[in-house]
Design brief:
The chain is of the alpha/beta class. It contains 13 helices and nine strands. The chain folds into two domains: 33-198, no CATH class; 253-311, no CATH class. A seven-stranded mixed β-sheet has the order 1-9-2-3-8-7-6, sandwiched between helices. The chain has a two-stranded antiparallel sheet with strand order 4-5. α1 (2-28) packs antiparallel against α9.
């Protein structure tokens, strides 16, 4: 009984562990970086994605950025300001090509460190801004609250000091609709860049599970596997092995002889067969008479035996 309880507890613990490792991260999106629109926990940006989706068409970008036409706003959230301050010329030209046809590029940073040692960055020279404890814009930029904006090509670039107000938790606490509307601008389409998080569309099993909502199937498979392991290690039926105190009973020689006679000799022939065997053992020369033979057909074997003994 204790073994079965232990096996059940182990199976339940295994199922819970698989749910925490596989299913729960897929449900909450905790396997993705902060400010990913695939996260529904406080530090994700799924609320912003779904809220804007009720107003304008929205989509996630899992591939390299491509040129977008006028009316498209591209959000790149959760960017490390230290790493971005060292951006190379090819990346800056990619940004400028995105806005060349009228797209609007919104880059939201992680909180700025209080200080970091750095040289004069290329982006500071090319875009005329400075990185200190926040963004210090040049004359081309226009500050609006915690963000700065400037025209670039036929479009515009917006840099946000801190992405937190755009997170799920930030929207719940601040709920600044005017700020979000200012960042989106006059857009008829909004794109959230997931590619810079390393979330790339590769056709993986995880993507298919997320697309077709197969998280529950994973849990069921894990439960079936746990039950199979339990069944393999312990029988569901009680053991038939006799206990040490219980004696093993059997048949003695007389019962075995009786069972053998019942299977081998038909009951109507029992008296005749016994008489013939008796004659063999006694080496008797008695002849079979009709009187003796008449007793062979007696249905009561005991009375036939007594009658024969009187005549012999």
């Amino acid at each position: 009984m204790l073994n079965k309880i232990a096996a059940f507890l182990i199976a339940a613990l295994l199922a819970w562990g698989l749910e925490q490792v596989v299913v729960s991260p897929l449900d909450t999106g905790a396997i993705y970086p902060q400010y990913s629109t695939l996260r529904s926990d406080p530090m994700g940006a799924m609320a912003l994605y779904e809220s804007l989706g009720k107003v304008v068409p929205v989509e996630r970008l899992y591939k390299s950025r491509v040129q977008e036409n006028r009316g498209t706003t591209i959000f790149v959230l959760g960017v490390d300001p230290v790493a971005w301050s060292r951006v190379d010329l090819a990346t800056l030209k990619e940004y400028e090509e995105l806005t060349s046809k009228g797209a609007r590029l919104v880059i939201g940073f992680l909180p700025f460190p209080k200080s970091w040692s750095k040289e004069q960055a290329l982006v500071e020279q090319r875009w005329h801004l400075q990185f200190r404890q926040g963004l210090v814009p040049g004359p081309e930029w226009k500050r609006q609250g915690d963000s700065i904006e400037r025209p670039m090509g036929a479009g515009s670039v917006v840099l946000v000091d801190d992405s937190y107000p755009l997170s799920n938790e930030g929207l719940r606490e601040q709920h600044d609709a005017a700020m979000i509307a200012g960042l989106v601008g006059p857009a008829n389409k909004v794109v959230f860049d997931e590619n810079h998080f390393g979330v790339v569309e590769t056709g993986s099993v995880t993507k298919l599970m997320r697309k077709y909502h197969l998280e529950g199937a994973v849990f069921v498979l894990a439960l079936v596997a746990a039950l199979f392991l339990w069944r393999s290690s312990s029988s569901l039926l009680p053991s038939r092995a006799p206990s040490a105190e219980q004696a093993v009973s059997g048949r003695d020689s007389l019962e075995g002889m009786t069972a053998l006679l019942r299977r081998g000799i038909p009951e109507p022939d029992l008296v005749r067969v016994c008489y013939e065997e008796w004659c063999k053992t006694q080496r008797s020369n008695l002849k079979m008479t009709k009187d003796i033979e008449s007793h062979f057909h007696d249905k009561n074997a005991v009375s036939a035996y007594k009658a024969l003994m009187e005549k012999l």
